[in-house]
Amino acid sequence: MGSGSRALGVAAVLAFGLVSACDTGGAGGADDGPGEEGAGPSGLVLLHRGYAGGDPREEQRLVFHDPDTGEERTAVDLPDGAVDPMAPRLPVHRQFSADWSYFAYSTPDTPAVRVAALTEDGSAYETTAELDPPQGEEWSAPRIHGDRLWFAAQATQQSSGPDLPGGNQAGRTATAMSVELEDADGQPQEEGELPLNDAGRPDGWGVGPDEQLSTSRDEQTVNGTSGTLRYRQRGDTVLGATLSSGQDELRRLRVAPVWGENTVILAPRAESGGQSSGSGGGARAVTVDGSADSFEETTVFTPEEGRVRQYAPSPERDLLLVQDDAAWYAVDVDDPGGGSGEKRFDAPRDASMEGYPLVAGWA
Fold first, then answer.
1. Is beta strand 60-65 parallel, antiparallel or unpaired with respect to 283-288?
2. Lesser CB count within 10 Å: N end or C end of the chain?
3. CA dihedral for 135, 88, 150, 233, sign (positive or negative)
4. Contact (CB, 8 A) for 205 and 213
5. Helix (H) or strand (E) holding 12
6. Integer CA distances (angstroms), 363 to 38, 71, 168, in order
7. Cα(104)–Cα(207) distance, rounded to whole angstroms?
8. Which residues does 256 contact at the CB level (< 8 Å), separation at least 6?
């Protein structure tokens, strides 16, 4: 651990008393299942990059919106540049603790991972710890699960050699690491090897409810009447899935929290130019049965404009808020009505490249 690391303060935990998020894959930091409700600011929680049209690097805020009207209830400042304003579809729901007291982040201009704690008055997250990697390494992709900070450790490109053709990276590997949030001066422990995507970056990993590393290698395949479902799960919880039928392909939106248990919400993958494949561009709920040899699917939402961008499940998992290009809609999960949702409010906008704030959870 670098000399810049220091223990996190705990005053913020007692000060703001923010509620747990709707799932441990969102605020709460794990990738599986719902969290607990509590007292404090509530609503749909969105991370704005370029709040109110301001500088997308400097004006970053976590905002609690009324889930019925979209009205802002509480806005909390983030450290400048904590979230890349040019990067699309970021799963920021993994970066907050369950009580919203901590926020973990890394930036492209440094190999370090940082942790920010909520101030006593609840108005901002201030950086309280910087975890510096050893020479020749970079630490990235932080996420919070329970009382631990998880991140990916990887040799820098300069120390591992030049790129190989075909997107492979010469000698590059990645390891999942974790350390207690309130003991950032402690030595991080290795949790396991991480798969790399075609760009040579750690991808497709998470933390299960049993505090164990989960990677995309735990994949199963089921053939159904509507296509082939490839998915991975830990216990009964589906962590990621892809449904393929001919030229159509639907995937779990990583930008949105995991639904939990044996159900996953899928939507057409984004293609170049912002287009999508898949009939109608709608979202489907896919449930894998207990024997894992079949699945059921239901169309839960068909967008009125554009495509499905992101969604946020309620803490009880009885209501789904879904955003298309223009607005947020509410869907009764038990009776989705053939994919038509009730419009709640126009989608908030920010000055990021995406043009709208990212789902951080539902408090």
1. unpaired
2. N
3. negative
4. yes
5. helix 11-16
6. 8, 15, 41
7. 15
8. 91, 93, 265, 310, 311, 312, 359
Check residue 351 and report its DSSP letter: S
Query: Minimal CA–CA distance to 362: which of 301, 302, 320, 305?
Result: 320
Token reading at 217 = 């290698």
- CA dist list (Å): 10 to 13, 101, 166, 185, 235: 5, 9, 47, 15, 33
pTM for the full predicted model = 0.84
Sequence letter at residue 206: G
CA-CA distance, 284 to 8, in Å (whole number)? 41
Which pair of structure tokens corresponds to residue 79? 């450290």
Cα–Cα distance for residue pair 94/84, rounded to 1 Å: 15
The torsion region of residue 361 among left (phi > 0), alpha (psi -120 to 50) and beta comes to: left
Is the Cα torsion angle 106, 31, 270, 156 positive or negative in sign? Answer: positive
pLDDT tens-digit map of 242-253:
999 877 899 988
User: Judging by beta carbons within 10 Å of its beta carbon (0-12, 13-18, 19+), is residue 81 exposed, middle or buried?
Assistant: middle
